[in-house]
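hey so u asked for the seq, here:
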Amino acid sequence: DGTAKPVVLTFRHALSLLKIGFRCKYEGSKMSVSSISLRRGDGSSAPLWTSAYFNAVNGTVVEGSSSEVLSYDYSGESYDFGSGEYEYVPMLICPYDYQADGDYVLEFRFNSVDPDEEIPTLSYPIQTEDIQGGFEAGKVYHFKFTLDNYIQFDGVNVSDTWEGGEDNNEENPQTATEV
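ran it, structure tokens below
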């Protein structure tokens, strides 16, 4: 009929977004994230992609090259946190099917406000129940941690929304190990 008609296009993110939330347990404490790594767990055969290709025809992500570890350096950023609300640090990754507990491990390095204080690298082996079977394209995974003399895992919330406020701050403590 020659008239223009609107076309509805639906887009979604091809990557997964990890938002790693930190807070200090005690009021007056302050820390800063210097780096976060996602590495393959000991004995894991699960791939950790450093590159991938998006197939626009069928909407799948095709494996590119892989590595043992993906590291993000945040030392030039301002990801300072204290007590109270979580401070979230973003990390984009390729989607992964999750095969077993501990296939992937999150590792954290922090800077202290006190330059003489050395803070160890802390790690958390991701559990299958944390991420509901895998890191899916277009999903956001809010990991929440509280720092004390150790790191306390406060739970994961998974959503389809990349924008907006953070989920609740319910506590579900599990202790990660120092490296």
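Residues 165-179 have pLDDT under 50 and may be disordered. The chain is about 0% helix and 45% strand.
lmk if thats what u needed
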